[in-house]
Amino acid sequence: MSDPGLACCTPLSGTAMSAEQAEQVAPLLKALADPVRLRLVSLIASSATREACVCDLNDAFDLTQATISHHLKVLHSAGLLDRDKRGVWVYYSVRPEALSAVASLFSTSALAPA
Q1: Mind listing the pLDDT tens digit for each residue in 9-52?
Q2: Which of 15, 31, 75, 102: disulfide with 81, CB 3.0–4.6 Å?
Q3: Strand partners for 76
Q4: Contact call for residues 51 and 92 (beta carbons, < 8 A)
Q5: Please, which residues bridge with residue 92 across strands?
Q6: What is residue 92's three-state secondary structure?
Q7: What are phi and psi of 83, to 5 degrees?
Q8: Where are the alpha helices (DSSP H) in 6-95?
């Protein structure tokens, strides 16, 4: 599931971002703006297998499984996570191209003085 909009992100300094690019990037930033969702992405990305199911993530939070599942759904809907259903469990993995798109907004080379 490739999203061509993710590869078009312009760094915040340098060339100005187009309205279309801003429309494509805003949902990613909005999804990541929640501390629980930001932490979920971090936990999944840093796991040994680079994937996790909600059952693996429950202990890291003082939240119900339903709440964690909701946050994972938001991240998936925004295009930040892929999911793979295995039996009764759904395993989530970070979409590297989505994180690269967000990271490119804040590239240190883009922020270096001219």
Answers
A1: 544 556 777 788 788 888 899 999 999 999 999 999 999 999 99
A2: 75
A3: none
A4: yes
A5: 52, 83
A6: strand
A7: -135, 150
A8: 19-32, 35-46, 54-57, 65-77
- Mean per-residue pLDDT for 52-65? 93
Q: 81 has which bridge partners?
A: 94
**Domain-wise residue ranges, the chain:** 16-104
Token pair recorded at residue 9? 């992100």
Helix (H, G, I), strand (E, B) or coil at 17: coil
Q: What's the CATH number for 16-104? A: 1.10.10.10
With beta carbons less than 8 A apart as the criterion, state whether 53 and 89 touch.
yes
Provide the percentage of residues in the chain whose pLDDT is more than 90.
55
